[in-house]
Amino acid sequence: MIHYLSGDDLPCHADLVSQMFRDRATQFRGRLGWDVTVDAAGQERDVYDDEGPLYVICEDAGHHAASMRFLPTTGRTMVNDHFADLTGGPVVSPLIWECTRFCLAPDAPRHVTAALLLGALDLGLRSGLTDAVGVFDMAMIRVYRRLGWPPTLIGERGGIGVGLWAFDGRFRAGLERRAKANCATA
Q: Which distant-in-sequence residues (6+ apart) come within 8 Å of 50 by Cβ?
């Protein structure tokens, strides 16, 4: 099931949200070795979690399976604060939102990656957005291509890329097929 959660929605899904932040710690600090902040409860959060983001969360069998965070580029974003040199300057548009913290639970079923991307695509289409901008490990570009929703690369440095994912309905059928319709939308 796909959840779109922000602000007042978070306490209503406290267990799912806590699992998401713990899985982020496992992925970003534990598996990838990033220098991220993990609190005493084992949850990874950064300053952008305080900016009022919208989380797209795929729940599978009652647990966090995958998630990502969205912020409008008209406010503070990781891309603009830390990677503007890769984009030729700040990306600022009410029609482009940043997506970050793409996270898979350690035991996530294979279909959830496509299901999460389908949830992100639906968010953009329903919200009238043109693109998502995000920072990603260049190794992930193969995954995005295989799933049928690759970014347009706008900058790269040392294995890190910044790309734009077009919110275009043409990508929906392929993502839906790959997600195997195992995640309904909430």
A: none
